[in-house]
Predict the 3D structure of the following.
Amino acid sequence: MNILVVDDERPARERLRNLIAELGLGEVVGEAATGREALELTARLDPDVLLLDIRMPGMDGLETAAHLAKLERPPAVIFTTAYGDYALRAFETQAVDYLLKPIRLDRLERALHGARRLNRAQLGAVEEAGREPDHPGGGARTHLSARVHGDIRLIPIEEVIYFQADQKYVTVRDSTGQVLIEEALKSLEEEFAERFVRIHRNALVARRALEGLERAGNGRYQVRLEGIEERLEVSRRHLSGVRRLMRG
Amino acid sequence: MTSALNAPKVPTRPSRDDLFLPDFCGIRMVFAVVVIAQLLAFLLALAPLNGLSADRWRELGLISLFVQWAALTSAGTLCLARPHLARLSNTAAGLIAYLLMMVVLAAVSEAAYHVMETIGAGHSAYWHVHFLVRNLAMGAIINALVLRYFFVQHHWRRNVRAESQARLQALQSRIRPHFLFNSMNTIASLTRSDPAQAEAVTENLADLFRMSLSDVLNRITLAEELELCRRYLYIEAQRLGERLSVHWDVEALPDDALVPPLTLQPLLENAVYHGIEPATGGGRIDITGRLDGSVIEVDITNPAPAAATQRRNGNRLALDNTRQRLSACFGVGTAVNIDADEARYRVEVRFPYLTADPQAGGGA
């Protein structure tokens, strides 16, 4: 069994390494200190099991797990957590395995024996729990993920310029290009309400990227956005809101 | 180092017995007894229905004399009996006090009758019995009411005391469970890799907890508080490694200033929890102290990572707690202010410079 240990604290990683060596159940093929690193190493090393800490700076464990689900063959995930995590109840109800720190040897053994892959519903539920407003990361995800040629491509949310809905997919545009994701514009709007503003039935735009509002002829308006050439149309319904935002 | 933390404890109030009866030996209590006895005498004089007459005044004088006599003798008896009663349960003490008061009343009534007899105002044997029975019946009711009053008042006082104690206790600084479990985890890891380090973390953790469990009225010196802060940060440094850096600038602070224990440490815990842990690259905490005349000012600054722009309730709770504890300790002249922008979060704490020895204190 190949195991990837993910924890932002060095002593915690060391301890897991020691415990796994003592059990002789598998081999630690890598250690990651952040969620991003964990995703990169998972793609490269293809471990069977991830021991994934929940509380990590930047992308936390719950978000990392949700991105993992986009992989062709995601590894099994066992969450590790210290005290009083809001996600514990979700784990219980979704039968997702988790270990409380300091981790006991026998609990770890049982968890590794029973390690299994999580389905989408389970991951959805635990991620939902992680998005409570009390969440250390501020509630919303830090990255969006998309499957590109069987790999996970991560897009930091602060680099997104706009979202545009088109039938089943949403186009995510950043300064380097665009990617399609399978999410609803409505839920994106709710999750990232602080960063994005609705300008049209089919478009959300980053507030920080708003540069100017201009006439497009026959009574229509469009916005200029920082870093890209394209203009996006502003619908009549959202015009006054955008105007207010530009002035403020 | 360790001896610095054997803080002198401010003694709590001397333990009182839990007897519901007040101390009747004090002058205030005697005065209260006199006033209440006189009110009772008025009541008894006013009670009969057959009109007011010149006789009524003479009667009031006699009744007053008698009631005062009985009341003061009862009070005196209870004053003498109190140390013995205090050893009994409240029910037993109440019962015995009641019997004592009735015996006193019977004795005083008997004596009063004999006085009347000697001054030639004697009455029939029938009147004698009538006088005794009447007095005892009224005394039975009044004494029961009096004891009941003391009992209820005692209960009420005890509740008020317990409540204020509970409020203080609730304000007592608590170390977050989050920190406890993280530290336990660190110790578990270090036990294998670096036993000496594990030992040091355990000792520091013990010091912090000892302080957080100490008496609510306990005061320590600022030097001791800063030492506790260093111990706390030592533990966190084991866990966070190079992600946590700390810059101290506290030379200007007087060592002997008194503070409630763990006044500053929770603010550092906040700084680590909100400022360092969520930041991918870690950050630096600045602790700066100044003495401005008789006012001590300590600033704690930490970076405000973008992810944590939404401040959590837990943070406000810790700040309110420190604020209330400082004002409970010092009264006026304390402040906990926040000054935050997008990059930095700064908490400024101000409190008066007081020392255990009033002569040495700058604020005295």
